[in-house]
Sequence to fold (288 residues):
Amino acid sequence: MTDPILTQIAASLQRIADRLDAMAPAQAAAGPLLTEADAYHWDAAADRLMPVPKVSRVPFGLLKGIDSVRDTLLANTLQFAKGFAANNALLWGARGMGKSSLVKAVHAEVSGHVGGRLILIEIAREDIETLPRLMRMIARQDARFIVFCDDLSFDKDETSYKSLKTILDGGLEGRPENALFYATSNRRHMMPRDMIDNERATAINPGEAIEEKVSLSDRFGLWLGFHNCDQPTFLAMIRGYCDAYGLEISDADLNARAIEWAQTRGARSGRVAIQFVRNLAGEMGKTV
Fold:
């Protein structure tokens, strides 16, 4: 005969167990299921990856004037996607010349030509301290990842760059085998020049004082430099966009208007080129 007290205790224990199961985080050991998209944004506050269903990107074939760095980053990414050795990459230099556009375009280009999944994850510059946490999360996944930070730079007295240095090289964990880190920056060393100069001028040993900060960029295996384009390249960019988007205009009219546009902006770059093309398309009643 069953003891009613024991039966009551067993029922209470089962209710406690059910509540504990409900409170436990789902898939804590295996990590998140990344099946919704091939691109995600890292939400550090929520400690989760947010899917990006449609990435804003320029088609790979429309990237003009950066042939050398384009081919180098494509080859590096293709090696990585196939499971071979590859380097972290720093894309630095002139603003508006397609640094972030190249990363997104290469991801799409490689994803369409290799087996397996290649996932692009964007991490915000202000969340770079959480990079080790993100890397630990994706290390358990059956996919390969490019973790991407756009416009990465550090101001005086910041220490968050140390988290990045640990991941790139030198930490106990280091970078997972299934992840690469790509960053864009207007500065080659990602530090303000006056900050580096000031530390050199006031230090007892100037070389040691700036070594830790300057050495951050040394930990990227690839340095890809972007420079301001000349007028022929600028006009070639615009003609390529017009042909791709079906904007019919003579070379003479297009060049005259494009040169005037660049003069009003005080710059020639890929960003200025696509802004001009958007304006032109709007006048023609089309979208790009």
Q: What stands out?
A: The longest helix spans residues 4-23. The CA atoms of residues 63 and 102 lie 7 Å apart. The longest strand covers residues 179-185.
